[in-house]
Design brief:
alpha/beta, six-stranded mixed β-sheet, two-stranded antiparallel sheet, 15% strand
Length: 318
Amino acid sequence: MRGRRGVACALALAASCATTSAVAVAVPRTTAPHPGTAAQVQAAVAFSSRITTVPSPSFPWLGAEGVDSASREFPATSRGCLTATACVFGDPAARRTIFLYGDSHAQMWLSAVAPAAAALHYRVVLMFLGGCPFADVTVWNPIPIGPFPAGFYHACDWFRFAAIQAIRRLKPALVLLSNRTAMVMRGPGSYFSRAQWRRGVVRTIAAIRRTTPNVAVIGDIVFMSNALPQCLAAEPTHVQACASPNPNLAVHGHEAAEGEAARAAGARFIDTLPWVCTQRCSPVIGPFLVYLNGAHLDATYVTYLSRVMQARLVALLR
């Protein structure tokens, strides 16, 4: 495999193994509540730590929680979005563009960003590769990802370069960046320091803002200590046994450093933690089972957040 063409082919193969959900799965559903207002989301999150039992009905139903990813609604994303033309959503006929870039967390937030953008008459271009942060850092993977062996994820570095070039060509009205900040390894048994992660975020934002000044970072969520949804299945009447503290000091994460870096680099920051957590992060909020797994939100809950996301986009697009 030689040159950029070879790497691009390998990326296409890797994406099916590196995304949050490689295959779109049919999920039995009943009608979930309409997207919540800011007040409704705030009230539901405030009460969430007092929930003790998995609700009935729940959204999604407990047996589907681990497969209810963005790929269900957006099957084009199930194998990654490696070019600026592969995954276009929102209002596809719109002349104005929001560019959503990052790793599987960018795919995760599509369920809120796409309907919000459609309501505002923007199209959404998504570029993401699983396990590949937007922060300009070279990741070390302890296990193989698709055709790439365990070790340094240099294909991610190439993909980051390609995404930034695509942004420069499109000159979107807004660039949204999203990635996982917790438990990302820089070498065998070691994680990025706060300063290293901060510098990586600043470098990427600076590269984008040379041609597209309107950049915002969608803040990371808390990495949960318990395996979800397995924990809820085992503890359906002890929901809070599956909760995690906010922040979760048991895992190595950089949620706060990412916000600092975004602001230092001249980007704006969407703090998503109040949409999910109080002092604790409950795996159930209202009738929703919130987590697809310990590192990602469930697509149904993210869709519920589309109205509050729309309000943030309105402010960012002024």
